[in-house]
């Protein structure tokens, strides 16, 4: 009986030392990595060390839920102040390949959807969980923190994704949501083209909660092609930054028509709609899928109200082939630190689209919906060549306007 008691005492002593060791290591990592605090009813705010005060740019802020992680680090987005604490990585083109070890389940995590529905809807910004104490998890740049005297508010957009339709705007918005300094609206709001008469109060109510220093982003691709919208945006959001996603206008037209088929809005063949009836070979430039690809014509309306420096053009083709490089340029344009990198993506071979590696505990990826990657209707080579010849002069003019050759 004496030996087992001594053995138990010895084992208990080793376990106690083991637990103390991990406690010390965890405390050291907390002190070294973040110098920030978990704030809640149970935990007071830890003051900054006297010999190493926090810089102004690292003001503590309150975490907000988003679609990608339940809680991520939200720091004051001051590019000038951050310049001495970080090194900007050049936006070099890095082609990446699929990691076969990464799961390719295209469905979002069911437990996340169930939890969102349980608290009252799929919009995290309207969730009562915002008022509850939030536990933290490691993020790329530190701990999630709650700030002093910080309040969330619904702010008018700092960034608009104005189009073009069926060019990758939805993918761009999904990728931008990964950034902790981005707060994005849900469905397309259509304020400046359909519901402008409802006023800014209505518009603000459709936007997510955000903190001072975060950028609110709204996406409505119809803004790009709707006359009158640039003047309205300039009047209500004079300092807004604009993101324009473009792709080959011929494939964009086919994708636009395919979407119309899926919604049962198009019943005639593509080739019948794309050409004027009485003049075979004459392109119907007034038809929506065709006119949507006349980028130079639509961009000119925006340049009449906004300087070229306020508009950033994103290649829809590169957004699929090399999303990390395109997102690097977008982050630079918006004045954000580079958080979204190659490690956030993997390629879904089945759909032919990049997917986001999820940050939730489930570790499941987030891929775009089933509507992405649909097969386009087959058109004759003659039709394809006629459309390319039709768009060519408009494309060249667009290249000159934006200073970039997309080689369509």
From TrEMBL:
The keyword Protein transport does not apply. It comes from the Eukaryota. The active site is at residue 166. InterPro entries: NST/OST, P-loop_NTPase, Sulfotransferase_dom. GO terms for molecular function: [heparan sulfate]-glucosamine 3-sulfotransferase activity. Residues 157-392 form the Sulfotransferase domain. Disulfide bonds join 355-367. SUPFAM superfamilies: P-loop containing nucleoside triphosphate hydrolases. Signal peptide: none annotated. 3'-phosphoadenylyl sulfate binds at residues 166-170, 247, 255, 372-376. Pfam families: Sulfotransfer_1. Keywords: Disulfide bond, Glycoprotein, Transferase. The keyword DNA-binding does not apply. This is Sulfotransferase domain-containing protein. It comes from Scylla paramamosain (Mud crab).
């Amino acid at each position: 009986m004496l030996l087992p008691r001594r053995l138990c005492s010895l084992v208990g002593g080793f376990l106690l030392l083991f637990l103390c060791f991990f406690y010390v290591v965890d405390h050291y990592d907390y002190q070294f990595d973040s110098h920030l605090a978990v704030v809640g009813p149970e935990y007071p705010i830890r003051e900054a060390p006297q010999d190493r005060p926090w810089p102004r740019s690292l003001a503590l802020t309150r975490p907000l839920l988003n679609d990608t992680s339940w809680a991520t680090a939200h720091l004051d987005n001051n590019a000038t102040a951050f310049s001495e604490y970080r090194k900007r990585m050049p936006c070099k083109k890095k082609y990446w390949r699929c990691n076969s070890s990464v799961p390719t389940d295209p469905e979002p995590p069911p437990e996340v959807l169930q939890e969102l529905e349980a608290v009252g809807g799929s919009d995290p910004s309207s969730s009562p969980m915002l008022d509850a104490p939030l536990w933290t998890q490691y993020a790329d740049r530190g701990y999630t923190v709650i700030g002093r005297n910080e309040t969330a508010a619904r702010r008018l957009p700092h960034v608009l994704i104005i189009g073009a339709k069926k060019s990758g705007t939805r993918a761009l918005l999904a990728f931008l949501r990964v950034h902790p300094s981005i707060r994005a609206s849900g469905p397309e709001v259509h304020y400046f083209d359909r519901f402008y008469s409802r006023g800014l109060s209505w518009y603000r109510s459709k936007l997510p909660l955000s903190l001072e220093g975060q950028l609110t982003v709204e996406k409505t691709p119809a803004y790009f092609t709707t006359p009158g919208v640039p003047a309205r945006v300039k009047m209500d959001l004079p300092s807004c930054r604009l993101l324009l996603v473009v792709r080959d206008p011929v494939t964009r037209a086919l994708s636009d028509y395919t979407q119309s088929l899926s919604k049962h809005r198009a019943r005639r063949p593509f080739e019948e709609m794309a050409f004027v009836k009485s003049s075979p070979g004459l392109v119907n430039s007034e038809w929506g899928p065709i006119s949507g690809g006349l980028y130079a014509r639509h961009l000119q309306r925006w340049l009449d109200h906004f300087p070229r420096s306020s508009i950033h053009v994103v290649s829809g083709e590169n957004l699929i082939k090399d999303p990390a490089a395109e997102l690097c340029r977008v982050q630079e344009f918006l004045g954000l630190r580079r958080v979204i990198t190659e490690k956030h993506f993997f390629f879904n071979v089945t759909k032919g689209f990049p997917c986001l590696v999820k940050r939730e505990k489930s570790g499941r990826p987030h891929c775009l919906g089933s509507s992405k990657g649909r097969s386009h209707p087959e058109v004759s080579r003659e039709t394809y060549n006629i459309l390319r010849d039709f768009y060519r002069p408009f494309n060249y003019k667009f290249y000159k306007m934006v200073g970039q050759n997309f080689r369509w």
